[in-house]
């Protein structure tokens, strides 16, 4: 499939005609396969041949199913749309929701705003985040890993593995939360220690109201974490002994 991705690393938005083409050579049968007299599938040559080193045997005919294409089956194989590539650190998460009913709830992946693109922490340490909502509407805070190579946030989706935290902070309320600072990746430049913050209204009826969270992140005391884990072990031992 052609046109599955677009690479962009500059600091400007870019709008262009995006073309996606499926089955451009008609090698896939979009209709009824023609069979030989013995009932086996009939193959015909595509006019193309294998080449090395991709194939062990070069100059072999590349075949496809012989096919009677269904009327109109090829008409929807090409799609053209105007696509705007957003600024770095933005994406689906910061884009408008496609439907009015999608802008409600903490698990949505649209209509957030990036408030902190490139915050620092010690890789793999437990972080304590204290936030106060000065506004009159509940807000959702989502923390994503940031890319050192790109120098900005990753606009993570709710179910992405690089989503570090997703919590609700009620209006005029404070909340303490914890997340793990990103560790190093298998890419040399991505040594971890960077994260980004995205904020959106829990019920975004007012269409991207300004973020109203005041937050401060600090390294958390590991005593609480280890003490909790020790308590679980002790409880398990007592349960076994009983």
Please characterize this protein's 3D structure.
- The chain is mainly beta.
- Helix content is 8%, strand content 37%.
- The protein has 1 helix and 14 strands; from the N terminus they run ββββββββββββββα.
- It has one helix at residues 222-241; strands at residues 14-21, 31-33, 43-49, 61-65, 67-69, 78-85, 113-120, 126-133, 139-147, 152-153, 163-169, 174-180, 194-201, 213-219.
- The strands form 5 sheets. Strands 7, 9, 10, 11 and 13 form a 5-stranded antiparallel beta sheet that branches. A 3-stranded antiparallel beta sheet has the order 12-8-14, with no helix packed on it.
- β9 and β10 (152-153) form a beta hairpin.
- The longest helix has 20 residues, at 222-241.
- It is elongated, with a radius of gyration of 26 Å.
- Residues 1-6 and 222-230 have low confidence and may be disordered.
